[in-house]
Design a protein that fits this description.
Number of strands: 6
Radius of gyration: 13 Å
Strand order of the largest sheet: 1-2
Helix content: 25-40%
Organism: Bacteroides faecis
Pfam family, one: Zn_ribbon_2
Shape: globular
InterPro entries: Zn_ribbon_dom_put
Protein name: Pyridoxamine 5'-phosphate oxidase-related FMN-binding protein
Oligomer: single chain
Strand content: 15-25%
Number of domains: 1
Length: 89
């Protein structure tokens, strides 16, 4: 099964981390950190989301075969994030 990722922050998501709609149902496109009760939890730009994600780079690197520097991670996210549903133009 293909790993789902949050269409706002790119975090891997599953049943335990899905966001929620206003009626309490699960939203399978966004994580609960980004989307709850039918709305985004934080209004921000794509660049602000990328900078927020950089706070978790050490945790990402710990669990990943690829180890990114902050600058490498920023460049990679700036290339990838425009493909996510929340940030598509």
């Amino acid at each position: 099964m293909e790993q789902k990722i949050c269409q706002s922050c790119a975090m891997p998501i599953d049943e335990s981390t899905f966001g929620t709609e206003a009626d309490g149902s699960k939203n399978q496109e966004y994580c609960h950190y980004c989307y709850a009760n039918g709305q985004f939890t934080k209004e921000c730009t794509m660049d602000e989301m990328i900078e927020l994600n950089l706070n978790y780079l050490d945790e990402f690197n710990k669990d990943s075969e690829v180890k990114y520097t902050i600058d490498e991670a920023r460049v990679t996210m700036k290339e990838f994030f425009p493909q996510l549903k929340r940030w598509k133009l």
